[in-house]
Sequence to fold (156 residues):
Amino acid sequence: MKRDGRLSGVLHLLLHLAERQEPVTSEVLAKMLGTNPVVVRRSMAGLRERGYVSSEKGHGGGWSLACDLSRVTLRDVHDALGSPPLLAIGHRNDSPDCLVEQAVNAALQEAFERAEELLLSHLGDVTLAALSADVQSRIEARGGTHDHAEEDLHEL
Fold:
C-alpha cells in the first residue's frame, strides 16, 4: 500500500509559512516539496476553507498563514486534508468468503481502529505552535541559522 505524505508535506509548508511575513507562491511551495503547484493548491484548499491559510492571486500574491499556531492541532490539519488514511496496512480482501480470512479481518480491524484512535488522539494533542517551537529549538541547537528555509523559499 502506498504511503500518503500529504499531512507531513502540508505541515512542512505551514511551518515555513509561519516564518514568512509575505505570501509564498504555489510554485515556490511546490519546489520545496518536489511536487507540482496544482498539488499544493489542491492540498491547501481545505486549509483555506478552515481559515488556517489565505491565498491572494496576482503579482505579490500567494499563500499566507491565517491562524494562531497555538489553536491548530495536527489533527485539525489532518481533518482539513480530508482525513487521509493514517495506516498503510489493511485487509487483503475487504469482503472475503473464506471464514478464516473473515476471522483475520475481524482481529485486524479491531487493532487498526485502536491504533487509529490512539494516533488521532496524539495528533489532537500537538499544536502547530509546539511544532514551531521544536523547529526553533533545532535552529538554536544548530547555531541559530536555518539556511535551508531561505534556500527553499528563494530558489525560484
Observations:
- The CA atoms of residues 32 and 152 lie 5 Å apart.
- The beta strands are 53-56, 62-65.
- The first strand starts at residue 53 and ends at 56.
- The first helix runs from residue 6 to 18.
